[in-house]
Design goal:
Layout (H helix, E strand, L loop, with lengths): L2 H24 L6 H31 L3 H13 L4 E5 L2 H7 L10 E4 L4 E7 L8 E9 L10 E5 L12 E4 L7 E7 L7 E11 L2 E6 L4 E4 L14 H9 L2 E8 L2 E8 L5 H11 L13 H11 L10 E3 L17 H11 L4 E4 L1 H14 L4 E11 L7 E6 L11 E13 L11 E5 L16 E2 H6 L8 H9 L2 E6 L5 E7 L6 E5 L6 E3 L11 H11 L5 H35 L6
Parallel strand pairs: 2-10, 13-14, 16-20
Antiparallel strand pairs: 1-3, 3-7, 4-5, 4-8, 6-7, 8-9, 8-10, 11-12, 15-17, 15-22, 17-18, 18-19, 20-21, 22-23
């Protein structure tokens, strides 16, 4: 202890002895007088001895150069509470390792499932074993440990080589004022902003340091354990890091590629994505690490049809007074910057390729691998029949008010991730998602994710919205005769009019590729016809369509049987044929 503090303590103790001495003299004690005198003399002797000792210490201290400083240093080292003076988030180092160095926003942006480092400077040397450092990462407005939105870490919290859970480790430099702490975000962590607080604990006393800037955690296409992992480096470059591309428009006979600026590294694009992620009650905070839930919510948040503070208002009327013509947009950045300035007011106006471009940008800025895809000769099923239905009365007059519709083209988004919710890895991979408001799904204008594997197989019960996407790309066009009593019968079926081309930009080049094979088997093949029949027979008009598709299946089976018998006869004939014989 220091000289000053020692004197204070001793002074307090000495005052107590003197008070006891006075008390002894004034009290009527039942002890002999010589005992009272003895206690009094002893107390005075102790008091004088301590005061003499203090005088000697002062004299020695003044005689020795620098002794006072030594006393204070010993006191500070042994008793003073450890406190953080500053924290360096090592932006350049971490952002480069996490493939986030292109983001304009000067914040710590990392990808989950991969560790990052921070540098912490204390007001004195850090002593392992005597001092403890605890980190708190707080997500959302009301972080709670029970909800997984308040994460407590210390140097003993797990191993940073295991990304299954959040963990941290105090690195080299222990024993000095400056140390590095390595932090591992869980591979299933919520995406978005985390606030950081650092607690220092010494002798059960605590000080807290609040880091001013948050850390932003994204999905990680480079991490094999992440839902969005993409194995091929060229595909990661294309679907996560490429900030330009093309959206295809026109018609099946005149396909045109429009250059599009996705701009996912623009500061307002990332800020808008984080703002939308936290707006409303779309997703509970603890679910914001599930790419299925996040991507589905963003298909609704990219449009403004549900009065949900969404980004873009659709308009197909041809009258664009009060806004911009959809054809005037050349990229997502201008749209999203307009939204950011006026949020939550919607931007006017957009059509399918603008919605798809904006959604692709929002996905890529959050780290979700994605691409825009254009379906030429695209169906729009209004009544969940999984077919495109055209109606006539018994006199051949059109009943267009009951009809489904077809578009020259329609643009949506594909995102690449696993479908843990479907409990079968065959549904992993590309998923169709659509931000264009067409039909409600679960009470909101949202669509997807629909597994392309489920679409191809006609498995319309494998959510979300597989039947709707199926009808867009592979629904049969069914022509109906509606009788006067309301009964219907099938007049004709066009099996090849829908989904003629599914165009997207090629990896690493500006060429167009057709990915139709991801949505359906070869047109007219047994596998494709089986998927169509399965989807149609699970839709709203199954009672009418089952008879047709089952009879078609019997007819096809009969044709296949006859063909097989003929091939068998030919093989037998060839096996017995010899040159020169007939």
């Amino acid at each position: 202890v220091s000289t000053q503090s020692t004197e204070a303590v001793v002074s307090t103790q000495s005052t107590g002895a003197h008070d006891r001495f006075i008390s002894c003299r004034e009290s009527q004690l039942s002890m002999p007088h010589y005992r009272v005198y003895f206690v009094s003399i002893l107390s005075l002797f102790c008091l004088n001895s301590l005061n003499q000792l203090l005088t000697m210490v002062r004299r020695c201290s003044s005689a020795l150069s620098g002794t006072e400083t030594i006393w204070k240093t010993i006191s500070k080292t042994s008793n003073e509470q450890l406190a953080v003076e500053k924290v360096d988030l090592l932006l350049n180092h971490n952002r480069k390792l996490h493939h986030t160095d292109e983001y304009e926003l000067e914040k710590l942006i990392v990808r989950r499932g991969q560790s990052f480092q921070i540098s912490v400077e204390f007001d004195r040397a850090f002593r392992p074993g005597l001092d403890e450092v605890e980190l708190y990462l707080m997500y959302g407005p009301k972080p709670r440990i029970s909800k997984g939105t308040l994460i407590k870490l210390n140097g003993r919290t797990g191993n940073v080589t295991n990304n299954k859970y959040w963990s941290c480790e105090i690195g080299e430099g222990s024993g000095e004022r400056l140390i590095k702490i390595e932090i591992m975000p869980s591979v299933d962590s919520m995406v978005g902003e985390f606030k950081i607080a650092i607690d220092c604990v010494t002798n059960n006393q605590l000080t807290r340091f609040q880091v001013m800037d948050p850390v932003i955690v994204l999905f990680n296409a480079w991490c094999p354990e992440d839902q969005v992992y993409v194995e091929d480096e060229a595909e990661r470059e294309e679907y996560v890091l490429n900030d330009t591309g093309k959206v295809y428009v026109g018609s099946i006979s005149n396909v045109m590629g429009r250059p599009w600026i996705f701009g996912q590294f623009d500061d307002t694009v990332l800020l808008s994505a984080l703002y939308l992620l936290d707006s409303g009650d779309w997703i509970a905070d603890q679910k914001k690490g599930d790419v299925v839930q996040v991507s589905r919510a963003f298909t609704a948040l990219a449009n403004s049809s549900d009065d949900d503070n969404g980004v873009l208002c659709g308009n197909w009327s041809g009258d664009y007074a009060g806004g911009e013509s959809p054809t005037s947009w050349t990229g997502s950045v201008d749209v999203i910057e307009s939204y950011w300035k006026t949020r939550p007011t919607q931007v006017k106006f957009g059509q399918c390729w603008v919605f798809a471009g904006v959604l692709t940008s929002l996905f890529r800025t959050l780290g979700i691998p994605s691409r825009s895809v254009t379906n030429f000769c695209s169906g729009h099923d209004h009544d969940d029949s999984n077919t495109i239905d055209i109606h006539f009365d018994h006199n051949g007059n059109s009943l267009s008010e009951y009809d489904d519709s077809t578009w020259n083209f329609h643009v949506w988004v594909e995102a690449f991730f696993t479908r843990r919710d479907l409990k079968n890895p065959k549904y992993d991979g590309w998923q169709a998602l659509d931000a264009t408001p067409q039909e409600e799904s679960s009470g909101r204008m949202q669509c997807g994710p629909a597994s392309l594997a489920a679409v191809k197989a006609g498995e319309t019960n494998m959510g979300y919205d597989v039947g709707f996407v199926f009808s867009e790309v592979n629904g049969d066009i069914v022509y109906w005769i509606v009788e006067e009593d309301g009964d219907m019968r099938i007049a004709r079926v066009d099996t090849a009019g829908i989904g003629r081309l599914c165009a997207t930009k090629a990896v690493g080049s500006g060429e167009m590729v057709d990915v139709k094979n991801l949505y359906k088997a070869d047109e007219g093949s047994a596998k494709e016809r089986s998927a169509v029949g399965k989807a149609a027979c699970s839709g709203a008009r199954a009672e009418y369509l089952e008879t047709y598709y089952k009879s078609k299946k019997l007819e096809d089976d009969l044709k296949f049987k006859l063909l097989t018998e003929r091939l068998t006869w030919v093989r037998v004939w060839l096996s017995t044929w010899r040159p020169g014989t007939r």
